[in-house]
Amino acid sequence: MSRRCVSAFAAVCLCALSVAVPVHAASAAGPVHLNSGNTAWLLTATALVLSMTLPGLVAFYSGLVRSKNVLSVAMQCFAIACLVSILWVLGGYGLAFGQGGALQAVIGSPRTGWLGGIGRTALHGTTPAAAFAMFQMTFAIITPALVIGGFAERIKFSAVLWFSGLWLLLVYLPVCHWVWGGGWLARLGVLDFAGGIVVHVTAGTGALVSALVLRERKGFPHIAMPPHNMMLTIVGAGMLWVGWYGFNGGSALAANGSAAMAILVTHLGASAGALSWMGAEWRKFGKPSVLGLVTGMVAGLGTITPASGYVGPLAAVLIGAVAGLVCFEATQILKRKLLIDDSLDVSPVHGVGGVLGTVLTGVFVAAPLGGIGYAAGMTLERQVGVQLLAVVSVAAWCAALTYGILKVLQATVGLRVTEEQEREGLDLSQHGERAYNE
Fold this sequence. Notes:
By secondary structure, this protein is mainly alpha-helical. It has a single domain (3-431), classed as Ammonium transporter AmtB like domains (Ammonium transporter fold), CATH 1.10.3430.10. 67% of the residues lie in helices and 1% in strands. The chain has helices at 3-20, 36-64, 70-97, 129-147, 157-180, 184-188, 196-214, 230-249, 257-285, 290-304, 313-337, 346-364, 380-411, 419-424, 426-431; strands at 123-124, 127-128. Strands 1-2 form a two-stranded antiparallel sheet. Strand 1 (123-124) and strand 2 form a beta hairpin. Helix 2 (36-64) runs antiparallel to helix 8 and helix 11 runs antiparallel to helix 12 (346-364). 57% of the residues are buried. Mean pLDDT is 92; it is low at 1-31.
């Protein structure tokens, strides 16, 4: 990537965010007293969620690709974490959570850049506003990082940077505001405790569209492309599982019973998802695989995410078990029947899991089923209807904007490496390095 491209990329992102609008002081309506226990938990959860990307997703994705592309995936995850962090501070946080603008139903309205209004004493509820902003930043980091699994092993690094910055601005921030920032879906009463819609539906849709636009890797599906290091993937999967306790439990924003239950149901959803995927694979192919076990775990985690603060243990087991079966079948259909090369199965695992979990949240939130119960005036039919509306509208928005971003980049900086570079591997062709120097 040339210096001119880097400069242009930075200028576009900075200008887009700085003229947009930023950040309100998130503490305006919250209590005035800081709770040290809640603060300690939120800070811990923030570290756990960041560890899901660095090093969790780095290890998980790196082990799944071929050895010639290990560093490229790790580089993409690290670079996205750095890029999103800066864009978040420059205005992204305000666009997601800013209040009071004329377009409040669709986008936030921050007043100044650099997290204006958030000082050492500013509060969001009973925790520092800075802690809340940092916690939400880690969600903004992992979502575009998940998307790269859809086009791994064939995309230019410059295109990854452009795509991730623009996708954050045009897809993630509006959807985050709709659901968590007081936007139109929040006003309808949508339930998404920790990111089934905001993270998994958007990431899964973005990955699917990206795979379709960039098309398959050379040799797919006729040449086997197995993971080059399953132990690395297993380590990454374990990091994701533990980090997910902060992802879901931290979304309670307090050290309370809601956080504890969210962690419990997260663990049960992951366990049930892993076992049901393993069983489905064992029955279909005659042998269970480690890859299937850890992929089922991720499917269970992604599917329980929107429901984690609303449902009970039994519902979590059922949701996780269904997730393992449905996501397994979705993976088989996508790769074996439709021949779509979503390299690391982001859309059938995260996307399908996010959709499934979001809809099932509307069912299992019911008090007779062990959930916290519906809000006043809400019924089963209405809640499920709102959940479905959210899934369809977010997926459509994400698909349209992702496609538009990719086509613009395809016509400008270019998307895909050359056939020779792909054959050589992205580690050498894009970064001039090898993961393994033997």
